[in-house]
Amino acid sequence: MSLSLTEEQKRRIEENRQRALARRAERLAAKPQDMKQPNGGQVLAKTANQTCSNRLEGWQQQYVKQGNRSEFLHQNTHNPTGPIQGKPPSAEVQQPTVRPHGIPQRSNPAVGTSLDGHNSRSEPVGSMQNSSSPCFVGSDSHNKVQQTSSHPEFLQPSYPSGFNKVTAAMLSDSNTLEQTSSTEFMLSLNKNGIECVGNEESQCVNSADWESSCNSEMKRDSETKNGTNVSHFYGAKQALKPFAAGENVALTDGKAQVSSASSGGALSGTVLLKKVPNALKGKCMKHSEDRFRVEVGYNAELISLFKTLPSRNYDPVSKMWNFNLEDYNDLMQAVQCLPSVTLQPLEGMDAKDFPQASLPSSTMLLMCKNLQKPSAILRGRCVLVSRSRFEVDIGYHPDSIGAFKQISSRNYDMKTRKWSFLLEDYQRLSEALRSFPSLQVEPLPKAVVQTFASQFEKTSTDPVDVPEAELSRVDSKLVNSLMPFQREGVNFAVSREGRLLLADDMGLGKTIQAICIAAYYRKEWPLLVVAPSSVRFSWAEAIHRWLPSIDPDGISVIVTGKDNLSASLVNIISFDLLCKMDKQMIASFKVVIIDESHFLKNMKTARCKAAMPLLKAARRVILLSGTPAMSRPSELYTQITAVRPSFFPRYQDFGLRYCNAKKMPWGWDYSGSDNLNELKLLLEESLMIRRLKADVLSQLPAKQRKMVVVAMEGMNAKTRAALAASAKEMAKGYKNKQQEKEALLLFYNRTAEAKVRCAVEYIVDLLESGREKFLVFAHHKLVLDAVCEELKRKEVGYIRIDGSTPSAERQNLCQKFQFSEKCQVAVLSLTAANMGITLSAADLVVFAELFWNPGVLIQAEDRVHRIGQSSSVNIHYLVAKGTADDYLWPMIQEKMKVLGQAGLSETNFSQTTESTDFFYKDPKQKTIYDLFQRSFSKDGDEVDEALLLEACQEMEQESITLSVDSTDSTSPCKKRRIDDFFSKQ
Ligand SMILES: Nc1ncnc2c1ncn2[C@@H]1O[C@H](COP(=O)(O)OP(=O)(O)OP(=O)(O)O)[C@@H](O)[C@H]1O
């Protein structure tokens, strides 16, 4: 007999069933462990799906925007309802194909495996199907993917029914759980999170991409008003993004139990990590009763991990970390997050002692969180190491090694442990490295790429020969005088289109080269020369000397702010006056020479501010400096920018690359240095030429004398008047020789007073230019005192030897100058220290004052130019116009000829020094010159003979001993006689 139910009964039963179901659903929500029940997953998944439905739109929009995954979009278009509306809810995971080498090929995110046992491949709709779908929450007994409930602390009651904290975490954090096969999840942690698996090209993102996408997603998330903090995964890119601080790691999903269909057994709670093939291997060893240590090589991630363990201790001797056994399990579990490390367990403790199946403890979560921190990103950089090769400077990163090995030009340096490649492989390698999101590799600077553009395209490593410049348009006198290396300098300049930094060592003739380069561009003149004020007139002289085709009237030295700049063909101006000039007028110059360009090293100075716009506007920029940077690369920045404004438009870029720039509480510190070899290569290729004296010594004379015409405009009115009066008197003539001599000495004395300021200024400029050791000779106490005072004021180490220095002390002073680095200047009396001492540690001698006896001068020069001197010696004679120098200088030259002929001077003075034909245009001057000649020839004969005799004796002495002679061989008696003669003031 069949028992048939009435309609009413059926309705009531159905109502009760519904109520029961509802109660059960409530119970399930309250008791997460109940989710193990078959229906639990469904309930949960349904809720999740509903919750996430709003998000789907955003995700789709993102893809539309990206133009990516069109196939997926197409499928969605065909089934607009998708599983959310049209199908029973299910949590689905993606099922990528497995690539031969074991790394799974990421499949179309639309294709996945449903956790409820439905293979979503057969279902075209995949709105929640990508690997990181928030719908990965449900399970049943068949699909072997279960949401465990053994960690109730992960539940968050305020979540909608069916949500636990794990689910929420998955949803709220765009984590990176990837299913690598239908049965296994692969959580491939890389340096900063998840390894890129599958098709790198389409899926890997660099952190910059990620950041921007993350920002937009965060924005979208914050706009969600569904009452939950859940967000969703946005597809492949999102799944692959690196971890960021504050996220829950995919390990959270370790709460999910993943079963392996292939193995047939469930691995409860396991998150299987794919270790890279050449993972770093280490082992745990017993350290003490309650501690263990880890013996392993360097791995940045591992160290980050170690640092999260409370009981950590680093032993600097063994360079190993050890821990309390209490932390053992946590460590071993967390190590599973690191694909690049494997650790052998402690002896006697099997894997079962720290079951992989156990869910992550809070410590482990903390550790994994720490792994997500940006510090876990492995940072490195590409650095140029030669004209044709670059190096990738990163720590150990197994994946990138694989990429390196794909490049045929690779080279591994065992010493530095760095890989280098030909520049032509740069692009390829950069692309490969970009695919590792855990890696941040700073590229080569734009300036390097620009400069070595040809090397990026070809394999040739030969430097391109600099073509010979066609110099027929330049005065032949100049061209014929160029030494071979100077000619090369000019060729370089022309090949760089007249924009360069000529950084030859001091005394190698930068002036002649600069004049030649400027003359090559003569059609673009007027020419502007900016120089320290102490050498402005020397520039006028040099231009007059080397370019005789220029009318001397066309060369003007600007001495006051009122002078008309640009009125002449050649304009010479000091840095200081440049600041006072009209900016528009300054900017009109197309050819500019900057002498001692390191004067511009500080961009905050007025001189730099005045010069930079001028240099940027000019077509040809010729910077001259023997010491472009004296202490740090930051000093080069303005000079580089002056020549190539496009190289480093931002100081910070330059600072970060080459100055090891650091952010300090007070601002940026650019005082360091970094990548200097690259900087050198860049500069030499693009804009700088530098030869050292040693490089071209064979082309240089043993001594190079230079006349430096010092500017006298700073002379005070009283001195000027006194000098003029003296000259006027002398022009009248004298009744007797005594009067003549007295007048001359007075004139000489006043000359010293007039020159002292310029001489000091010149010495200061030399120091500022980086001259490390040099001699300064002067005759008058006034000048010696002024020089010493200034050195003292500037805290420059010096020695002083004059008539008052006891003989015994001279030796010590000389030793000090010779061997102490701090002792930079030797201030010497022309008559008291011109012989018997050796100061060959210097290779420059400056004569602040002239002297009528060339024998004295040559002897003075030879304090440096003597045995022990390996360099070419530079001699600078400071000559002041309108003073006694006008007469002394030609007289000296004439006498020098005689000494040269007598073999007493190694070099012929007149051949190596510059022309002096600007003297004696006025007949009165001729009268005075005759007076000088007459007086000093007659009265000086005796003295000259005595000096020459002593010089000969000294030379004999030197040739016998061939050793350093630092004793004063002049007898005190003779010396006094000579001193008396010359020091009558
Ligand atoms: N080719 C040349 N022919 C003749 N004299 C030369 C030549 N080259 C350089 N000199 C002389 O050598 C001396 C040094 O030259 P210059 O002053 O140009 O050197 P520099 O490189 O500018 O040195 P610093 O950096 O000290 O200023 C000068 O007297 C100059 O006239």
UniProtKB/TrEMBL annotation:
Annotated Helicase C-terminal domain residues: 762-915
Segments of this protein annotated with the region Disordered: 1-42, 73-156, 960-985
Cited InterPro entries: HARP_dom, Helicase_ATP-bd, Helicase_C-like, P-loop_NTPase, SNF2-like_sf, SNF2/RAD54-like_C, SNF2_N
GO-annotated biological processes: DNA repair; replication fork processing
Record-level GO cellular component terms: nuclear replication fork
Cell compartment(s), UniProt: Nucleus
Keyword set, alphabetical order: Coiled coil, Hydrolase, Nucleus, Repeat
Keyword Nucleus on entry: yes
Pfam families in alphabetical order: HARP, Helicase_C, SNF2-rel_dom
Entries under PANTHER family matching the protein: DNA ANNEALING HELICASE AND ENDONUCLEASE ZRANB3 FAMILY MEMBER, SWI_SNF-RELATED MATRIX-ASSOCIATED ACTIN-DEPENDENT REGULATOR OF CHROMATIN SUBFAMILY A-LIKE PROTEIN 1
Protein function: ATP-dependent annealing helicase that catalyzes the rewinding of the stably unwound DNA. Rewinds single-stranded DNA bubbles that are stably bound by replication protein A (RPA). Acts throughout the genome to reanneal stably unwound DNA, performing the opposite reaction of many enzymes, such as helicases and polymerases, that unwind DNA.
Similarity field: Belongs to the SNF2/RAD54 helicase family. SMARCAL1 subfamily.
Name under which the protein is recorded: SWI/SNF-related matrix-associated actin-dependent regulator of chromatin subfamily A-like protein 1
Gene name tied to this protein: SMARCAL1
